[in-house]
Specification:
single chain, 165 residues, mainly beta, 2 domains, 6-stranded antiparallel beta barrel, 3-stranded antiparallel beta sheet, 2 helices, 9 strands, 35% strand
């Protein structure tokens, strides 16, 4: 798989559990897509972080490369999704896993039309984070990691920040 792809959501069904020692992830519902589809992808686990997928080992299991992008606490029965985001982002300490988005053209345009504070400069793989400045004002920082107009497979979890239209 390349360093990144174009799907914001390759797969997401049910919940996931991860053994942090063996680095084996097990999904609760459904059958994982073919190995060629998910290997090299990024699994983002709600509230826990993200990791790069090393190998699909069964219909409901896969291994991850490392646990560096995860928070180190037990993962059992947690919502998740698998995407084609750039494989280096789980190791980027500047952004949490829930601050990285696959932004398609419609989401970018809707954010611009609404004059949203979260409007990215480009479609593609984008980091969006907010913080409070020294004067107590909320600020939003956006960073385009990979510009691209071909993002597909909308991840509905991002609709509060990046509505589809």
């Amino acid at each position: 798989m390349s360093l990144w792809g174009k799907s914001d959501s390759l797969f997401s069904t049910g919940t996931i559990s991860v053994n942090l020692t063996t680095k084996v992830a097990t999904i609760s519902t459904g059958t994982l897509p073919a190995a060629a589809t998910i290997e090299g992808g990024v699994v983002t686990i709600t509230g826990k972080g993200s990791a790069t997928i090393k190998e699909r080992t069964g219909n409901t299991t896969f291994t991850i490369h490392n646990t560096t992008g995860l928070d180190g606490t037990a993962i059992s029965g947690v919502a998740y999704f698998i995407s084609d985001q750039p494989v280096y982002l789980p190791l980027d300490s500047n952004y949490e896993s829930n601050e990285i988005f696959g932004v398609d053209e419609a989401e970018m345009q809707a954010a611009r039309d609404d004059d949203s504070q979260y409007r990215p400069q480009h479609a593609g793989w984008v980091g969006i984070t907010s913080y409070t400045d020294q004067h107590g004002n909320q600020r939003v920082k956006t960073e385009c990691f990979v510009a691209g107009s071909s993002i597909t497979g909308d991840n509905n979890a991002d609709d509060t920040i990046l509505p589809d239209s």
